[in-house]
Amino acid sequence: MKRCGQIIGVKPEALDEYKKYHAAVWPEILDMIRRCNIRNYSIFLKDNTLFAYFEYIGDDFEADMAKMAADPKTQEWWAIMEPMQAPIETRVEGEWWANMEEVFHTD
Fold first, then answer.
1. Which position among 22, 34, 35, 73 bears the catalytic label?
2. Is 22 considered catalytic here?
3. Cα–chain-centroid distance for residue 2?
4. What is the largest CA-CA distance in the chain?
5. How many CA within 13 A on the CB side of residue 95?
6. What pLDDT, on the 0 to 100 scale, is given for residue 3?
7. Residue 50 CB neighbours (<10 A)
8. CA distance 87 to 93
9. Which domain holds residue 68?
10. Percent helix, strand and coil across the chain, each rounded to 5?
11. CATH code for the domain of 46
């Protein structure tokens, strides 16, 4: 299992709408998340910064993420979410959400 942390900004004027969508995530999106071997997925908010945490239980992360990105319903969801988000400047080229390095873990 791989633990993943990511961050992105959320535009202050879009915060209420972002929360509204995430209070009722479309069932097709939740299904695709599960089909792409993501578990224990949470998004936290602090000062217009979103922190996402999830656990990946599959064997090929890149293939599963490509499968998710190719899904038409996921593309529709992202088209609504992306204008509300503000990627951080220090993200790696090609990232939307900036991946974080895990520096500590304990069970």
1. 22
2. yes
3. 15
4. 39
5. 16
6. 97
7. 20
8. 11
9. 2-99
10. 40, 30, 30
11. 3.30.70.100
What is the SS3 assignment for 32? helix
What integer pLDDT is reported at residue 2 of this predicted model? 95
Only one residue has tokens 């499968």, namely 67
Is 105 a domain residue? Answer: no
Segment holding 70, helix H or strand E: helix 61-70
Q: What is the pLDDT of residue 45?
A: 98
Q: How far apart are CA 37 and CA 58, in angstroms?
A: 5
pLDDT tens-digit map of 65-88: 999 999 999 999 999 999 999 999
Q: What H or E segment, with its residue span, contains residue 27? A: helix 27-35
- Quote the distance between the C-alpha of residue 45 and its chain's center: 13
- Lookup result for tokens 């900004």: 9
Q: Strand, helix or coil at 12?
A: helix
- Tokens found for residue 72: 């038409």
Global pTM value: 0.93
Domain count, the chain: 1
Domain assignment of residue 107, yes or no? no
**Which two three-digit tokens encode residue 67?**
């499968």
